[in-house]
């Protein structure tokens, strides 16, 4: 599913109206009706509730007037409608709906000055449900003055708030919240989600998100040049087809994982095991010589190989030939967990990137090595998937604010270095060199725990070993990893969740996806 900016959704609305000929009032009617339907779903005793609908002067307010009209029509007479403007300021479809509402003798209370705020607070206090139809995708700036006071009064009223399209005050374009913003319990967003309702910290204001079809033709959406998408269960499911009976471990590929240094054997182990849990047929874990024997016992199903090491016990540049030989029958290389940034190890990473001919998943110290000379990525012979967390991303592209520009930064970096990239964090974004970006909906704050990244590296490598193309492996891997974390959290909560739990939950998460 595509994810829009304000400008992109406005363009879709415009084309639906002008090119396809669907009148704007029809779209507005559908929008309002869906909000009413969502209210009925969430509040079974809606008929007995007192509803306050707060309308702004744009089309978002117009949607609110449609809601008012239908609630009245359905016999709910405890409905109050406020308009944060003088009626003369309304135009277009909002004006049409204002006129209809007026002719239906539904009273509208104009709130146009701060002196009316106490009266507005009373109205909020007397209501059971608040409908926020103040501002939608037309928001231009941080809200101030009357709008700010109204928004804050609504938040303080401690009543359930249902936001029309987006919580008022939230920018459709990014996860940044500039000023006051409605803290919604439910948001009914139209046609496709806007970036702001998915990205944090703004997403915190959205509550439960419903995406509803208001009649914008699918072909317009599909053929638009919107490059940002939401990863959905249905697409992920296609990765996990039923396995034919007549297959063997070789069918599902062999992963080579190069990882570990003294003190970081666990990272290597988890990256190796999670590739198997994601369905890879075989995994060989290549570690510095000193870790080989200690890892032999806990690795169980994972095979190990010892590599020449530096004086400090990290994998040394001398390991290059051995690694190239090990790669002969492998489908993918996972490189980086717990490697260290020893200069010799860093040099090895650079050399491998330039010579390996199977796809590479590079994480953690692998990324830190790349960050010392990102241009090396342009010399890669095979596809590269990078999985940085924001700190690693900042090393890769210094002097850019990462967290406030997650989509743009991931998109630009993937293009510039011709790599696939999963920028981790709440709502991981996956970017492909062709400019497409995917936002992942799964995962939870319990996953901010040591080793969770190593598990993701293993999952993505495990998927690539099954001949899944890198972009799909990155999308599916991130989704699966987050879902496994969500399943653990459902049982154990966020606090004590550890990476090993995520790893062991992978099979159940795959099963859940298949059964979806
Ligand atoms: N035909 C369409 O374009 C459709 C639009 N729809 C609704 O219309 C919304 C977009 O409508 P509009 O483009 O009219 O925009 P909005 O209704 O979001 O608001 C625009 C109005 O608010 C004012 N404004 C902007 N920023 C402000 C701020 N910080 N403080 C105070 N006032 C501010 C603007 O000057 C303008 O008058 C969507 O979110 C959706 O709810 C739906 O009805 C579906 C069809
Ligand atoms: K709104």
Description:
The protein is 42% helix and 14% strand. The chain has helices at 6-18, 24-42, 59-73, 92-103, 117-125, 145-156, 195-198, 218-222, 233-237, 265-277, 289-299, 320-326, 343-355, 365-371, 390-396, 406-417, 452-464, 470-492, 499-515; strands at residues 51-55, 79-83, 108-110, 129-133, 161-164, 186-190, 208-212, 228-230, 254-258, 282-288, 303-307, 332-335, 360-362, 384-386, 420-423, 429-431, 437-439. It has a ten-stranded mixed β-sheet with strand order 8-17-16-15-14-13-12-9-10-11, with helices on both faces. A seven-stranded parallel β-sheet has the order 3-2-1-4-5-6-7, with helices on one face. Strand 13 (360-362), helix 14 and strand 14 form a beta-alpha-beta unit. The mean pLDDT is 96. Potassium ion binds next to strand 4 and strand 5.
Chart the SSEs and their pairings:
Elements: H1 6-18, H2 24-42, E1 51-55, H3 59-73, E2 79-83, H4 92-103, E3 108-110, H5 117-125, E4 129-133, H6 145-156, E5 161-164, E6 186-190, H7 195-198, E7 208-212, H8 218-222, E8 228-230, H9 233-237, E9 254-258, H10 265-277, E10 282-288, H11 289-299, E11 303-307, H12 320-326, E12 332-335, H13 343-355, E13 360-362, H14 365-371, E14 384-386, H15 390-396, H16 406-417, E15 420-423, E16 429-431, E17 437-439, H17 452-464, H18 470-492, H19 499-515
Parallel strand pairs: 1-2, 1-4, 2-3, 4-5, 5-6, 6-7, 8-17, 9-10, 9-12, 10-11, 12-13, 13-14, 14-15
Antiparallel strand pairs: 15-16, 16-17
Helix pairs in contact: 2-3, 3-4, 5-6, 10-11, 10-17, 10-19, 13-14, 14-15, 17-18, 17-19, 18-19
The protein binds ligand NAX and potassium ion.
Residues 60, 132-136, 163-166, 168 line the site of potassium ion.
GO molecular function: ADP-dependent NAD(P)H-hydrate dehydratase activity; ATP binding; kinase activity; metal ion binding; NAD(P)HX epimerase activity
Protein name: Bifunctional NAD(P)H-hydrate repair enzyme
Binding site for K(+): 60, 132, 168
């Amino acid at each position: 599913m595509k994810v829009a900016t304000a400008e992109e959704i406005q363009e879709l609305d415009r084309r639906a109206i002008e090119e396809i000929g669907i009148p704007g009032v029809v779209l507005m009617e559908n929008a309002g009706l869906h909000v009413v339907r969502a209210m009925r779903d969430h509040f079974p005793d809606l008929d007995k509730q007192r509803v306050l609908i707060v309308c702004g002067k744009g089309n978002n307010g117009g949607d609110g007037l449609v809601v008012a009209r239908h609630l009245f029509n359905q016999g709910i007479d405890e409905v109050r409608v406020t308009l944060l403007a003088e009626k003369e300021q309304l135009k277009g479809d909002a004006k049409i709906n204002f006129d209809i509402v007026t002719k239906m003798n539904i009273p509208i209370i104009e709130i146009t000055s701060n002196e009316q705020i106490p009266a507005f607070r009373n109205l909020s206090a007397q209501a059971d449900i608040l409908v926020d139809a103040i501002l939608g995708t037309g928001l231009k700036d941080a809200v101030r003055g009357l709008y700010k006071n109204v928004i804050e009064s609504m938040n303080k009223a401690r009543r359930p708030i249902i936001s029309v399209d987006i919580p008022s005050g939230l920018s459709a374009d990014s996860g940044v919240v500039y000023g006051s913003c409605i803290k919604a319990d439910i948001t009914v967003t139209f046609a496709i989600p806007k970036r702001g309702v998915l990205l944090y910290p703004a997403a915190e204001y959205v509550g439960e998100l419903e995406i509803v079809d208001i009649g914008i033709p699918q072909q317009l959406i599909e053929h638009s040049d919107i490059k940002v998408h939401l990863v959905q269960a249905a697409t992920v499911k296609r990765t996990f087809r039923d396995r034919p009976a007549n297959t063997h471990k070789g069918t599902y590929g062999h992963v080579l994982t190069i990882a570990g240094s003294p003190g970081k054997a666990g990272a290597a182990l988890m990256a190796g095991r999670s590739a198997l849990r994601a369905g890879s047929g075989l995994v060989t874990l290549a570690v510095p010589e000193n870790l080989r024997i200690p890892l032999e016992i806990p690795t169980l199903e994972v095979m190990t190989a010892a590599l020449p090491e530096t004086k400090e016990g990290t994998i040394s540049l001398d390991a290059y030939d051995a690694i190239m030989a090990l790669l002969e029958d492998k489908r993918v290389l996972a490189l980086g967990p717990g490697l260290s940034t020893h200069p010799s190890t860093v040099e090895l990473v650079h050399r491998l990137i330039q010579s390996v001919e199977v796809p590479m998943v590079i994480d953690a110290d692998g990324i830190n090595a790349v960050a010392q000379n990102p241009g090396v990525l342009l010399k890669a012979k095979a596809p590269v998937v990078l999985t940085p967390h924001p700190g690693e991303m900042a090393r890769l592209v210094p002097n850019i604010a990462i967290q406030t520009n997650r989509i743009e930064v991931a998109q630009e970096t993937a293009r510039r270095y011709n790599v696939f990239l999963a920028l981790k964090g709440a709502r991981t974004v996956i970017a492909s060199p062709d400019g497409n970006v995917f936002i992942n909906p799964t995962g939870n704050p319990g996953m901010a725990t040591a080793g969770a990244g190593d598990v993701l590296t293993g999952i993505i490598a495990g998927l690539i070993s099954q001949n899944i193309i890198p972009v799909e492996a990155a999308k599916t891997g991130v989704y699966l990893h987050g879902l496994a974390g969500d399943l653990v959290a459902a049982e154990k909560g966020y606090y004590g969740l550890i990476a090993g739990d995520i790893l062991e939950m992978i099979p159940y998460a795959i099963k859940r996806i298949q059964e979806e």
